[in-house]
Amino acid sequence: MKQQQRRDQEEERRLRLENIVALLGHRWGHVSREGVERCARRVGLECLWEDQIPGVEDRTLSIAGNSVLLDVLFLKSTDEAGTVSLSFPGREEGVWGKSAELGADVLRKNLKDEESEYRILDPFVESLGTLARLDRLGTGGVNCFDAIGGVGNALRRIWESETKQRREAGGEDDIETTVMCKQSGKPTMHAKGKIGLAVQYWMERQHLSPRKRKRDDMEIDDSPSPDTPNKEPKIWSLAIECEPSSAETYPSIRVSEDWISDPPIAENPPAPEDQIAPSSTTHSIQWQDPPLTFLTPDPASSNLLDTAKTPDIRFAVQFNPPVLVPLQTALQIYTS
Description:
Layout: H1 2-25, H2 33-42, E1 46-49, E2 59-64, E3 69-74, E4 81-87, H3 95-98, H4 100-111, H5 122-137, H6 144-169, H7 175-182, E5 186-189, E6 197-203, H8 210-220, E7 235-244, E8 260-267, E9 283-287, E10 313-320, H9 327-335
Antiparallel strand pairs: 1-2, 2-3, 3-4, 5-6, 6-7, 7-10, 8-9
Helix pairs in contact: 4-5, 6-7
């Protein structure tokens, strides 16, 4: 009986210690040289400090993965972050390479706070974790940055075509807002403080002109000040990401620039005269099915099936803010 009680007490003590360790593991602390390095290693990236230059107190921490490189300059002997540089070696002309400066600006703001002396690491870890997760998923010659970039290029072409059509039609003041809320949405990279590709699809007070929205924001503010920026309207968006998933359960990601034909939008053929309910849309997006992407076969493997394997990675979207739908609708989405 006493042995059983002692065993139960030891088990309870062990569970309590595990809970404490788990709680401390989610507390990233404040921004510091050691803190940034520790966070980078915990999300799976490599770190290397630049050699100390005689007479120069600034030091640069290089954080690297397979396809991403981040340099953080710490000023003098303090924990204050200065410049932040983000790059994707070999992909300078891609979607991620061209928007690297925007991503670096997000990471820099994660590390610096002009209003407070202390800055917690949580926002930086969230941004860095997104890069590390995409970098880590890429295996067998398949790169998640390239896969998302191909989708981003297709969405950008659709956006440009739809806004061009609206401009040619004329009669609207805020064309971009109309296309964003009533058509295919507005693709963005590293917008609203979030790393990655997102599609903005809704905005509050969308029916008001930009000038009217700005005037309303000034009227709502009881004490307007030139130092206080105008309140931006709330925007709904969805982030396009990659996540692990069995290729036998869901379709794998595809690395391709052929998600859409050229031109991306075509005029619909006239509806038959005997059609009861003709479509109200005059144009449609010319989506197409790109070829499958296969993993690079392992030269050391003698299994012939390895030569035709698709990656165990799928595309995923995350709504911000979350969207509540009925259970039946959710099941239809998952099974579609």
